[in-house]
Design a protein that fits this description.
The structure is a homodimer. Chain A has ten helices and 27 strands. The first copy, chain A, is of the alpha+beta class. In chain A, helix 3 packs across helix 6. The radius of gyration of chain A is 25 Å and the shape is globular. Strand 14 of chain A pairs parallel with strand 16 of chain B.
Chain lengths: ~425, ~425
């Protein structure tokens, strides 16, 4: 089992493209990335979700301002969600060569289409003849055409835009400075909201004076939207769900404990997780990202460096009181930090595993079945000897993640 | 605020039809019915869900064998889910008169159609002329026709079958005895599975030699299926959900804490509760009842005479351990019985209200924020002084509702 980001980092290394990998991601994903990749890659976190141009602009600023890369450094931008094979990374190598040889300011990867898809953007080359570096000059871009137009595009040799871009760092930084002029990466990141909410394709690729495309013909499966991801699922149902007899091209992915019953649906994806439930016609599934921003007041599932937690209940009562209940798992050998809360008490019931619990400087061994009561203002920590899960009930006011003061504890074992 | 069953019982009493009301319901609904109606009505509970014929046969057996009603007693069967006005109950009065005057063996209510619906069964009268009692002899029944056929039916004066039936008890008991011959109601109930799974319409109405219909023209809104219920909802969204711009005739009812996002749906109902999530084309929503039997291993929400509970987590871990976490509310002045568990320990954290807790014969006052630990084999009870909610974490093996021994506790206040 390998996550998308683990796979792509492994593939980049196996292709010996570079060891200098920087991951651009949302701040909320940082702990997941570090859990999966350790400290072997640099990570740039966007403080809020905007679009692909701001994300790439921030990553470029990091390379320029934090890592002091030179302006003529060749940078390749690639998404982590396509499922590909080794030839994909060879193609990326060719793209970098094209930039080094100044074939064009911007070089992108063109995926050889397998059918007239309405899901992708198309890149139309000037002519089908390739130059010495294997690239073709780009005449125009066409965003998600209908099937008829897609057939025409295929007939003139158009390729799918694979979202892989190569350029010299200085080229990108000239565009970045149109919005934010700064000598400091921290300052640029703090002013992130000044970048326009626009895709890299619209802001950079379509405006570029000189663009080339390098074709790739091998396996390429886009797993970045529910629409494309469900195409690759072997079974229509994952998790606790029952599909009625009158469904066509419908997929259910259920991470919740509640059963799902579906009938009479067409071309629909149903995805249920602690962060929310999506019921969406597949062709609209790309719009979900925009729509669900701020749908949950707090994240309902989070991975942390020490493990993960899931909110299982979050209720405000008629008398104004509030309680928050979580299922928290600490991985074997990890611990949650020695901490104190000023406004809430916590009751922890261990339901799996064994560990060492500290309360106000006193360590004790704890096991499944034990209940630990932590009043307001009492210091506590918990270390897992084996994988340890506990149910935490928080009471108090306010119940916010920020009510935490951390200090150091030296574990006896 | 009044539930469907509270409303219909109130209306029957206001119409002075009878004080002798018997409610036929599923065993799982018994506590809800008693909470809502007290002990003022008789309740017959079917041990398992079968269909309308077995349910009515069991209710008739109760009247005959448990209540010793005479064979010539007039019985009226009515569903509790249509939304109606006073004239509906006047019509029921007329139906009872028809049976008393021996107009027909079976008398049913015909709802005057407002449009050529495909959702209902139709009753076709012999002629449009009514006899002295206001009834018409029935020629035939037609189940859910298509729109064209429905228009034809309207043109010949057909009425919707409202699911209200009147007959003499002896008439029904002759049919009951085709399947179960018994002098004991308890015995009949124990043999409930011997009744065929068939609707009253098919087993009784369509086979009857002499059937009359009494028309009703007033307000009548069927709230018995999602398809008909959503027609009556003023807003398309109830609960935490966002409807995207490309939905038509779609309704979301969300009782869960997880947000729901919906887009691109047509004629769809999405209903989410702790017992499960339904995503269904409205016209198929009647089939849900059959499909979802046994979908959940345990009820995720239950009303009890003392309050209610909701399962918020139910997990089996890699080491084979199992934990069950519930949010439990006890209504003010009520208590849960003095009890002991032989295989599980419980940790209760009070999150709302105040009450009196008993552990092994010792009472103490408890409040929101308190955590109460109840090891295996210790007797305990809890009484709510105000509405009291607690989070219960069960650990042990097995975690089953049956692991409970109850005894008496005399509360000091």
């Amino acid at each position: 089992m390998e996550s998308m980001v683990q796979r792509v980092v492994r593939q980049v290394r196996e292709a010996e493209l570079t060891d200098n990998i920087t991951l651009a991601t949302n701040a909320s994903q940082l702990d997941i990335i570090i859990n999966q990749l350790g400290e072997s890659v640099s990570v740039v976190t966007e403080p809020e979700r905007r679009d692909t141009f701001p994300a790439i602009a921030l990553a470029a600023s990091y390379l320029k301002l934090a890592k002091n890369c030179p302006d003529d450094e060749v940078v390749v931008i690639m998404p982590c969600d396509p499922f590909t094979e080794a030839g994909y990374f060879e193609t990326i190598g060719k793209m970098a060569v094209c930039v080094e040889r100044n074939v064009a300011d911007l070089v992108l990867m063109g995926i050889t289409p397998t059918y007239p898809s309405e899901k992708y953007g198309y890149v139309v080359p000037e002519t089908a003849s390739r130059n010495a570096e294997g690239s073709m000059i780009v005449r125009q871009f066409t965003e998600k055409p209908n099937v008829e137009r897609a057939k025409q595009l295929l007939s003139i040799g158009a390729l799918w835009n694979g979202g892989v871009f190569a350029f010299r760092l200085g080229y990108m930084m000239d565009i970045v400075r149109k919005y934010i002029k700064s000598d400091s990466f921290e300052d640029t990141r703090a002013r992130y909201c000044e970048f326009p909410k626009i895709s890299f394709d619209y802001e950079v690729a379509e405006k570029a004076q000189s663009v080339a495309v390098v074709p790739y013909t091998g396996q390429w499966k886009d797993l970045g939207t529910w629409n494309t991801l469900t195409d690759e699922l072997r079974r229509p149902v994952i998790g606790n769900a029952v599909m009625g007899p009158r469904c066509t091209n419908t997929h259910v992915i259920n991470e919740l404990q509640y059963p799902i019953y579906v009938d009479g649906m067409e071309d629909t994806v149903i995805a249920a997780s602690p962060d929310g439930i999506i019921v969406c016609r597949k062709k609209y599934s790309e719009d979900i990202k925009k729509a669900v921003d701020n749908l949950t007041p707090r994240p309902m599932y989070e991975e942390r460096r020490w493990g993960s937690y899931r909110v299982i209940d979050d209720t405000t009562y008629a008398d104004g009181r509030h309680s928050l209940t979580k299922s928290i798992t600490i991985n074997a050998g990890k611990n949650i930090s020695y901490q104190v809360h000023r406004h809430r008490s916590e009751a922890w019931t261990i339901v799996e595993g064994e560990g060492i619990f500290v309360l106000d400087g006193v360590e004790r061994k704890v096991n499944a079945g034990d209940t630990l009561v932590i009043p307001v203002n009492h210091h506590h920590a918990l270390k897992a000897l084996t994988t340890l899960t506990f149910i935490e009930v928080q009471t108090g006011n306010p119940l916010v993640e920020e009510d935490i003061e951390r200090s150091q504890w030296n574990w006896s074992e």
